[in-house]
Amino acid sequence: MTIDNPTPRSRLRRIPERGRYDRETIDAVLDAGFLCHVGYICDGQPYVTPTLYWRQGDHVYWHGARASRMLRTLEQGADVCLTVALADGFVLARSAFHHSINYRSVMLFGTAEAVTGEHVKAAALEDFMERLFPGRWRELRPITRQELNATTVLRLPITEGSAKIRTGPPKDDDEDCTWPVWAGVLPVQTTLGVPLPADGMPTETSEPNYLQCLPHLNLGHPK
Amino acid sequence: MTIDNPTPRSRLRRIPERGRYDRETIDAVLDAGFLCHVGYICDGQPYVTPTLYWRQGDHVYWHGARASRMLRTLEQGADVCLTVALADGFVLARSAFHHSINYRSVMLFGTAEAVTGEHVKAAALEDFMERLFPGRWRELRPITRQELNATTVLRLPITEGSAKIRTGPPKDDDEDCTWPVWAGVLPVQTTLGVPLPADGMPTETSEPNYLQCLPHLNLGHPK
User: Fold this and answer.
1) For A207, which of B50, B172, B182 is closest by C-beta distance?
2) Which CATH architecture has domain B16-87+102-167?
C-alpha cells in the first residue's frame, strides 16, 4: 500500500533515491520511535514542539493538556508537519564533504482531528500505554472522567508524506579511498538504563517485564 | 547571562516552572545533542526538517547542500523555530494521567544568516567536525573550493528562546501512592555501537580515540 504520493509538499527534492512512499517503510519508521516533532503555524510564526506519539492503524496519534497552544491550534484544522527522525550512526568519510549520518525519518503532512468521546479517547490512551508498557493499563489506578476531559488526543491520517532513509558506509570519491584516515560508520543507539523505583511503593510490588525491554520499540538494555 | 526573554513567542505557557531562560542551561542542552529539528514556513506550509547542528559561542549552526529548500528558504530571512529535544526517561506513575517523560529541550526563535566567505565557512565546518571528532579535520583529505561552494552554512543567534526540562520521579496524587503497581523512572540513553570500518582502508590505519567516546557529547559505549 502506498500513500497518495508524492505531492508537491511531500516529494523529496534532495537525494530523491533516499525517499520512500510505501506504507510498510513509513510504518516501520513510525513504529520504531516514540518522540516526534510537530510543526505548525500560530500567528504567522512557525513552532516545532517535541511530543510523544504512537501509531494505530492508519493514523499517528499524540496527546497533551487541553490548554496546550499546540493542541488548540491544530484542533482548529491548522496545517501540520509531523516529523520523526531516528539517528542510526555517524558516517565518517575520507573527506569532510562526504561525512553524513545514517538515519530513518518520516515527514507527514495534513490536518489533525481531535479524538472525541470518552470511551474512544480512553481506548486511544490505552493503545498508547499498551504500546509502550504491555499490560500496564489494567494495573493502573483507573483514569477518571476529569482526567479524560483535561486531555486532548489528536490524530493525523497517514495519507501524505514520505520516509527518508540513509544506510551503509561512506560514499567517498574513488581517488580518496586510500587516504590514510579511519573511515566507516560509528553506530548510535538508544537503550534503556537501570530503572529507578519511586519512593513509597508497597514492598511486594514486582518489577514488570517491560522494564527490561519495550518490545514494541525493540528497546532494551545494552548488551 | 540570560537572553532577551521571555518574549510572547518564547514564554512557556504550559507548566512554566519547567522553563529556563538562562544561557548556561540553554547552552548545556544544546551542547548535549547533535540532532535538531528546524521549523520554517514555505508557501504557507509548515515544514520540520531534522538536521545536525552545533553551537559555537552565541550561535547555533547547521549546514547542508546549497540546493536544499530549507536552507534556501531560511537564507532569505524566513522566521525559524529550531528545537532540540533529548529524551532522558519514561516516567511511570500510578495513574495513566501522571505518566510523563523526563527530557531536556530547547526552542530557539529568530532569523538565520548565511556564513559566507571561504575561510570563515571552512572554519565553521572545522568547528563542527572538531566538536564531534577531535583531531579529525586535519587528517582528512582537505576540503576543496568546489565543496565549500556547494555547501550552505547557516547560523541563528541564541537571543530568543527557552529551555524546558523535566527531571525526577513521578508526581502522583497523594491518595494513589500506595496503589500496587511499579512506579518510577525508566531511563533511556543514547550510546555508541561497535564501529564498522569501511572497505579499502590501508591496513595500518589506526582507530581514533573518538570511536570510543565523543567527548564533547559525553557519548560513549554502554557500560
Assistant:
1) B182
2) Roll (2.30)
Q: What's the pLDDT tens digit per position in A68-105? A: 999 999 999 999 999 999 999 999 999 999 999 999 99
**Is residue A2 scored above 70 in pLDDT?**
no
- Minimal C-alpha gap between B87 and chain A (Å): 8
| Three-state secondary-structure class, residue A201 | coil
* Separation of alpha carbons A77 and A94, rounded Å: 48
Which pTM was predicted?
0.96
What does the pLDDT read at residue A5? 64
Q: How far is CA A200 from the centre of its chain?
A: 33
Domain boundaries of chain B, sorted by first residue: 16-87+102-167
Beta bridge partners of A54: A61
- Which residues from chain B sit within 8 angstroms of residue A92, using beta carbons? 133, 136
A120-178 pLDDT per residue, tens: 999 999 999 999 999 999 999 999 999 999 999 999 999 999 999 999 999 999 999 99
- Predicted ipTM of the assembly: 0.95
pLDDT on residue B2? 63
Classify residue A136 by its DSSP letter. Answer: -
Chain B residues near residue A206 by CB distance under 8 angstroms: 182
- Options 1.25.40.10, 2.60.40.2380, 2.60.40.1180, 2.30.110.10; CATH of A16-88+102-167: 2.30.110.10
What is the predicted pLDDT for the residue at A1?
57
CB contact under 8 A, B206 and A82: no
Whether residues A87 and B34 touch (CB distance < 8 A) is answered with yes
Asked whether the beta carbons of residue A47 and residue B103 sit closer than 8 angstroms, the reply is no
Question: Are B38 and B110 within 8 A, CB to CB?
Answer: no
B193 and A186 within 8 Å at the Cβ level: the answer is yes
d(CA A59, CA A123): 14
At B5 the pLDDT is 64
Helices (H), A100-179: 118-132, 145-149
CA–CA separation, A153 and A69 (whole Å): 13
Distance of CA B74 to the CA centre of its chain: 18
